[in-house]
Amino acid sequence: MALPQPLRVSITPTELELIASEQLVDVVPLITMEKTAFISGAYGPLRPPNKCRIPLWMAVNLKLKKKCHIVPPDWLTVEFLQDRLSEETSEPEFSRLPFRFAEIARAILDVASDDVQNAEKVRSLLKDLREARQSKSRDGLSQIDNSELSLPNLCLMEINEIRPYFVKAMNVFTQLKGQPEAINKDAAHEDDNDA
Fold first, then answer.
1. Residue 157's domain spans which residues?
2. Tens of pLDDT, residues 148-182
3. Among the four 11, 108, 111, 145, which has the fewest Cβ within 10 Å?
4. At CA 151, angle to CA 149 and CA 156, rounded to 5?
5. Is the CB of residue 7 less than 8 Å from the CB of residue 165?
6. Spatial distance between the Cα atoms of 12 and 7, rounded to a whole number of angstroms
């Protein structure tokens, strides 16, 4: 969702993808590499054809150099996403998805779509799922009150998208809630002046 410049008080989608790139994913290496230390930790050794768990940023880098195959997460399948889409469209609650599903799916599909079965169908389901969840978010925002808000199973990208609207709405509620007190004080002050 593209936001107007004045509402961009949140983290950008690119920054969210950078944060998500620390998630660990499985790869099947095509090269041998000893255990290597990085700032975020030590990863490896890589020994084909054994799977290895490494950060997404490293997997993307190796995939771009044709040095590994990325093993898609269990949730990045047509069956799983179809189940979540049917839940999303039939249940009032948000379906349970990984907290950073949008960012991880995009990174994997951008560089390793050949490693994902039915990649185009997966892309289409992810798009439908995001649209259904955004629709629920918009409906939820229209029903906000200043007492409580509960949005379980919302992912990081979705929270980031509604944050600017939510903050503005809560500021308006706070102002409106304070106005009756100010009106009552003004009325009491006028009564004191009349006496």
1. 73-161
2. 666 678 888 887 777 777 777 777 777 777 765 54
3. 145
4. 125
5. yes
6. 11
Q: In whole angstroms, what is the distance from residue 17 CA to residue 5 CA?
A: 20
Q: How many domains does the structure of the chain reveal?
A: 2
Q: CA 157 to CA 15: how far, in whole Å? A: 10
81: its two tokens: 């996403």
Asked whether the predicted pLDDT for residue 193 surpasses 60, the reply is no
| Calpha distance 42→116 (Å, rounded) | 27
CATH number of residue 46's parent domain: 3.40.5.50
Residue 21's CB is within 10 A of a number of other CB atoms, namely: 20
Q: What is the CATH number of the domain that holds 134?
A: 1.20.58.1020
> What is the torsion angle, in degrees rounded to the nearest 10, for the CA atoms of residue 60, residue 88, residue 82 and residue 99?
20
